[in-house]
Amino acid sequence: MQSEDNKLKSAPMLSAMAIVLIASYIGAQMLADIASLKIGVIAGFAVDMGTFIYPITFTLRDVVHKVLGKKNTQVLILTAGAINIFMAIYLMWVASVPGDSEWGLSAEFSAILAPVWRIVLASILAEIISEMIDTEIYSWFVNKITREHQWARVLTSNSISVPIDNLIFAVVAFGGVLPWTIVWQIFLFNLVVKYLITLLSLPLIYIVPDRA
Fold it and tell me: Which of 95, 107, 148, 197 is 20 to 30 A from 163 in CA distance terms?
C-alpha cells in the first residue's frame, strides 16, 4: 500500500509562486468587489472604489497564465467568480442575523456590507467575461504574434479586456438607475484609473520565468 508521503510525492505539485499568485488573484477580486459597494468622489468624478485594486487582477491573471497555462487560468477565473457570489450570499445572510445588543454595530454592518445585488452581479459578470477575453487575447498574442516583449502581451490583452470590463460594469450596475451622463462619467474616469494601474502593474509579468 502506497504511503501518504509517497502519494504526495507522486501527485502534481504547485510551486510556491503559483500558490501565491492564485491567492493574490482571488484576494484582489474579493477586495475589489467589496470596495465596489462604495461609490466615491475623486477629483470631482464618481468612481467605484474597487477601481483602484481591481485592474491588478488582469496582470495577475497574465502571470498565472504563464505559470499554469490557459485551461487552468480559465478554471481560476470561474472559481473566483463563484467565490465572490458565495461571499455576497454569505454577507447577505450575516447582515440579516439579529445583532447582539451588547456589541452593537449591527445596523452599520448591514448598511455597509449587505450586498447591493445589482452592483455585485454587474461586477462578477464583468470580471468573468472580460478576464475570459483577456485569456484568449493573451494566448493568441503568445502563440500567433511573438513570445518576445512580455510587456506587450500584457498591454495588448489588458487594453482590450479592461474597457470591456468597465463598459459591462457601468451599464449593468448603473444604467437606468443613474442619469446616463453620470454613467458615462463613471465609465470614463474608471477607465483612466484602471489603465494607469495596469501600466503600473506591468512589471509583475517578469516575476516568473516565461513558460506560457
Answer: 148
Beta bridge partners of 45: 42
Which pLDDT belongs to residue 211? 63
Burial classification of residue 133, based on how many CB atoms lie within 10 Å of its CB (0-12 exposed, 13-18 middle, 19 or more buried):
middle
175 beta partners: 178
Closest CA to 174 of 184, 161, 160: 184
Contact 134, 61 (CB under 8 A): yes
* Domain coordinates in residue numbering, the chain: 17-206
Between strands 45-48 and 39-42, the pairing is antiparallel
% the chain with pLDDT above 70: 92
Identify how many contiguous H helices and E strands the chain contains and give both numbers: 7, 2
DSSP structure class, residue 202: G
User: CA-to-CA distance for 206 and 31, rounded, in angstroms?
Assistant: 24
28 C-beta neighbours (distance < 10 Å), count: 20
Topology adopted by domain 17-206:
Arp2/3 complex 21 kDa subunit ARPC3 (1.10.1760)
Three-class secondary structure of residue 201 per DSSP: helix
CB atoms within 10 A of CB 211: 9
Q: How far apart are CA 95 and CA 128, in angstroms?
A: 26
**What sign has the CA pseudo-torsion 32, 58, 132, 187?**
positive
What pTM value is reported for the model?
A: 0.84
User: For residues 193 and 51, is the Cβ–Cβ distance under 8 A?
Assistant: yes
